[in-house]
Specification:
heterotrimer, A alpha/beta, B mainly alpha, C alpha/beta, A: alpha/beta, eight-stranded mixed β-sheet, four-stranded antiparallel β-sheet, 13 helices, 12 strands, 35% helix, B: mainly alpha, 0% strand
Amino acid sequence: MTEITEATAALAARSGVPLIEARGLSRHFKIGGNFSRRSLHAVDGADFVINHQEIVALAGESGSGKSTVARLLARVYKPTAGEIYYQGKPLSRMRTRRDGLGYRSDVPMVFQDPFSSLNPAYRVSHGILRGLKLHRHDLTSNAARFEEAERVVGAVGLSPAREILDRYPHELSGGQRQRIGFAQALGYRPKLILADEPVSMLDVSIRIGLLNLMAQLRREAGVSFLYITHDIASARYIADRIMIMYAGHIVESGPTEAVLADPKHPYTQLLLSAVPDPRAPLNVGADTDMGEPPRVIDPTPGCRFRFRCPYAEAQCETTTPLRRQLGPQHSAACHLAQADPGFPISMESL
Amino acid sequence: MSAILVDTTAAQGLLEPRRRSGRGGLIRAVRGNRKAMLGAFLFALFCLLAAFPHLFVPWQHGDPRDVGNTPLLHPSLKHWLGTTGLGQDVYAELVYSTRESLVIALVAGLGATILSVIVGVSAAYLGGLADDALSLVTDVFLVLPTFPLIIVFATYAGKGNLAVVVIVLIVTGWSYGARQMRAQGLSLRNRDFLVSARVRGERRSYIIMMEMLPTMASLIVANFLGAALYSVLTAAGLQFLGLGDPASLSWGTMLYWAQNQGALASGFPAWALAPGLAVAALGVSFALLNYAFDEISNPALRPIRRSRVKRSDS
Amino acid sequence: MSSARILEVRDLRVEYATATGGVCAVDGVDLDVHAGEFVGIVGESGCGKSTLLFAIARLLSPPAEITGGQVVFHGRDLVTMNDKRLSALRWRDYSVVMQSAMNALNPVQSIEQQFDDAIRAHRDVKVSPVRSVEVMRLVGIDPIHLKSYPHQLSGGMRQRAMIAMALLFTPDLVIMDEPTSALDVVAQRSLMVQIKELQRELGFAVLFVTHDMSLVSHFSDQLMVMYAGQVAEIGATRQVFDNPAHPYSRGLLEAFPSIRGPRVELTGIPGNPPDLAHPPTGCRFHPRCPVVKPRCIEIEPELYQVGAASARCLLHEPGNPASVDVTVTASAVKRP
């Protein structure tokens, strides 16, 4: 590809239809046995967009619904309501196996637990080769597939590739196993990789290596990432945009720096103030909050954060706030933030 | 967006030298385990006896069931375990019976295991209504009283037919294993590598056969050994009760005739005890192999001589 | 902070028995804990920090065993003490908080029953009849939850209940093994603050093991960094943070991206922690060290004094001309 056509392609990709668009995405789970009518609202009314060649972080605590969003995008679950559009086409219309496989090869997933994400009974080459067999029709022989497997293993920083492919999962370290997970995804020549907390179970000194790998893949292979995490600091490190989830809702979304510098939603503020940072002096703002994110079962209208919010008012009890734009590409779902542009007054200097 | 430029190649380049290979480790593991060695030895012995009985009874010509001239002899140098009421050499009968008893054990054990794997794992993976239905069937078979059922079946379906015995054993023996398979299948179901296979786009049948089953290999083998043990004992019991073919050459039948002729009461214990001990010995070999497999596949059960490699700090 | 030493660990060694000989998980650790002090022990998987903790608490079971050294608590060596005298000490003078409350609490007993269990185990100690209520209040849980079962409480509350149980007899030392790792960041923060407050009120010392260095940065007085079973660096927390003397500590610190300040590229620490069955020769960190020198491969460094801390690095060997100032920059990452 010449320089000019590359640039045009990039421009077309950027100005055209987004890679992924979710509208009103919801997923509920029935709980309590066969005859109960109670349902757990894991995700409710999520609207978001993921563009080409960008890293979007989806941050929240456990139970916020972020993993469910990833699984909805990976088609592990079907949405209870709402729709996911892939390059403008709704996923619910993809019925044939061919369409489904095509989507899966564009949108693979990397998992959190290095100890259970690879089948312990096979060598690590197994998953990669199977994936290549299913999705890469341009590779027509075993030799070609093996060569490609070596290439992707090298691309994720593991060497010597041939020897690594020959190993069993228990013979590799956690960091190496996660890299194999990325190699598997890379083999499909994907457009978007769903990374579900890929570094949470790794040692701290290994995490940076993998985060750098993700940034490198975005830059060199043009892959987008949906980076699911509970660690805001790592989200800031690699993500272009960040979405904060609480109790099934996306409560704030925007460019990473903007959201971290000027958080509009009280929950984002709370999260940020609770992140330990050895280089900054201890601030006492978040001490009084002892709460934890709720499990949302048969919710009533109203802001789901109202029980822990220091600013909650009457309308927060009755009306569920919708996410509205409050700055350039920066939106938050809070009545008070939407009413007053200067809200909230930061209690500690960031 | 700051450019983050780091050469990650150097990061994980150091590969630790391989300590042990994947499959060769099994042989080594068996060799290092006393129970496994004993069980394996016994089993090998029985296989030899079944395959080449004439090697162990070189003087026997013709069918050991042929009626002989010297009935009811005590053990002697000529007849190591004496003779039966019809003059047949007990030792020769014992050795030649190994084949049928072993075949019953292996075939019925295999059949029951296959059935329990299919039902149990499908129930676990498919979930929902399929799971409910399959579990109901399993539970029903589990609760049925096996021995009376076996007797009824065997009597109805044609006494003495070896195939009937094997089928009856399979039908009554699969449900226990199915329960175990389902339990393990359920615990495996949401493991990431299975979700990963699904996200990869594999078909469900592929996932069950090629991704789940290999990880359940040790449980399946243990199941098979348990089913084989059950089959040996139950088949012997059936034949002892006279529901087998009284003309067949098997340990249970020997017991039947010994009982019939009052061997113990008349003071010819060798005739009754020998087949009984043989059944027990085959059962013991399966049981030992079963223990050994547990220990090999689950390091936590091993006697404390080895270390556990700690992956996460503890 | 009073300078009375309540715990002195000297040259502690713990080995795991294997078919091919012993693997040394803790190799000669020294540690002093003073009354009311908060000591943080940080390190990554396999460094031996949890093994160290269990050894100090005398909770190790085969194949692990203490093969050398002393653990002197209130003047008595715990290593040589028999079980009977240990039981008298346990919970009364020191207690343990585990990593996962769900695993440590009995799922079929209510919280109150478990507290009573502990109280009854030490009949000789006089305890107020409402002690259970008192400790629940101390940790900020409504005493009504005494009747609850562990699964009915949220994760954060369970951890608090564990801490309450550990404080039943107001011990002098509370040993905690990563008590916050199962919690989310907000619950983590409030638990840490709570622990600090309790420390101030009741005056107990804390031994806190974690893999998350930044978590203890604001709460600990003394910080120990472990690597491959040895103490890599130990000293006043502020000193270790502001001026890490050991390249590993520095690498660890720099592996934490910050949410404030400028966005910088980070490199982490290349390679993997060593196999303790076959540790590297000389300094155990040398295969991954950005400033490794030829001597480091041959000589095993001791702990050398560096201001208010000590570090196990030849850079700080007395008489070493290079031991003046260690500024290791990210660009000096050495390619193996």
